[in-house]
Amino acid sequence: VVGRVGKSVCIPLEIPEGDVIELYWKFRPLEPDSLIAVFFEGKFYDHYQDRFQSRLGISLSDKSCTLQIHKLQFQDSGIHDIKIIILKDKWKLTEEFNLTVYEAVSSISLKEFNSTETPKPSPDQTCNITIVCSVEKGSHVTFIWKENGKNITKDKFLQVSNHTTKMEIVLKHEEINVTYSCEVHNKVSQENATINPWKFC
């Protein structure tokens, strides 16, 4: 299960026919027996852990039970254990789900640096440009560079840090219309920006 910081996530659980009379929700990164929420006698209680209080919910319908976590935080990532007791013969069902919370990718910053000695190369000269692509925020991000819409192999650019990558290119005069794009994404968001580097030659 994947969630985004500050947003909500809903986890549907399939249950056998019968009314849910009890539900016990535990968060494994805490102590093994630490409850974070309980459904009992038709009421839902989430006051067991301060940081989860007022952020949890439950929705019950025929053969389904949907758990909700609101205003997601990084610390909500981990294994959640659920024990459900069904009215019919007090049948017990145990479920678990692994939640990973991601921070969304922020807007991309593209910067260009011209290392060519001649400001405006003549038709028989080349232009050396370094393009730096970075984002301020985003967890577990992946960078993809493209030239005229086609992916560039990873050996052509350098990953400077978790949030920054750069690429050095040599442009010929006939490549005046070539565009380069930087795409940054994770499992919950994506950003991209495009540039025509020749105008910086």
Q: Main beta sheet: strand number and arrangement? A: 6 strands, mixed
How is the CATH topology of the largest domain named? Immunoglobulin-like
In one word, what is the shape?
rod-shaped
Unreliable stretches (pLDDT < 50, length at least 5) are: none
Given helix and strand content, the structural type is mainly beta
Second rung of CATH, namely the architecture of the largest domain: Sandwich
Number of domains: 2
**How far is the first residue's CA from the last residue's CA?**
47 Å
Which homologous superfamily in CATH is the superfamily of the largest domain?
Immunoglobulins
Number of helices, where a helix is a run of at least 4 consecutive DSSP H or I residues: 0
What is the helix/strand order? EEEEEEEEEEEEEEEEE
Description:
By secondary structure, the chain is an all-beta fold. It has two domains: 2-102, Immunoglobulin-like, CATH 2.60.40.10; 109-200, Immunoglobulins (Immunoglobulin-like), CATH 2.60.40.10. 0% of the residues lie in helices and 53% in strands. The protein has strands spanning 2-4, 9-14, 20-27, 35-40, 43-45, 56-61, 64-69, 78-86, 91-102, 109-114, 126-134, 142-147, 150-151, 158-161, 164-172, 180-185, 190-195. The strands form four sheets. A six-stranded mixed sheet has the order 1-9-8-3-4-5, with no helix packed on it. Strands 10-11-15-14 form a four-stranded antiparallel sheet, with no helix packed on it. Strands 13-12-16-17 form a four-stranded antiparallel sheet, with no helix packed on it. The mean pLDDT is 89.
